[in-house]
Amino acid sequence: DAGVIQSPRHEVTEMGQEVTLRCKPISGHNSLFWYRQTMMRGLELLIYFNNNVPIDDSGMPEDRFSAKMPNASFSTLKIQPSEPRDSAVYFCASRLLAGGSSSYNEQFFGPGTRLTVL
Amino acid sequence: AQSVTQPDIHITVSEGASLELRCNYSYGATPYLFWYVQSPGQGLQLLLKYFSGDTLVQGIKGFEAEFKRSQSSFNLRKPSVHWSDAAEYFCAVVRDSSASKIIFGSGTRLSIRP
Question: Which residues of A61-83 are buried (b: 16+ CB within 10 A; e: fewer)?
Fold first, then answer.
């Protein structure tokens, strides 16, 4: 089991540039989450998808951020244009939606992408 | 609104000493409760979870947690810590099995004194 795969692991870019973060969820999982982690704000949920459909994007900070999930095995988080305050670690997580009402399948996290915007 | 409180930002314990990390949640019903650990430079890893049944749950790496409904708490414990336990620990809650969003606490950073 490869786990959740994120790329790149580290990204350094200049203010104003477009940044694209990528995530491959665990095979068979049908729910995917994007988080941002900073010292000041902790771990924040940005957006999540169920069955490739965005369900809640209320955590997306502004229009500069967008996320897509074109198929069950791939998602992207794009920042355009990037700003220094976007510097953070971005995590992707996936889980299998529970079929019954008596269980909850936990989220599995990727290793994260450390983004630095200069 | 659902929330999770971890009152201790940073805790230091000596290697071999016992550990208890506090977690309180605010929700009327019995939520689904989790503890995750994040080692430096790594993603979050699930330590244990509670859904129902026995209120003392065992997890990986020798950790356990006890659900106390009367105190709305789900504290994490370990009888004897190892230097490798130094990490950030997050308590988290899900409203019920139909919910997708996990609410994370702010985390407790654990340092181990040699």
Answer: eeeebebebeebbebebebeebe
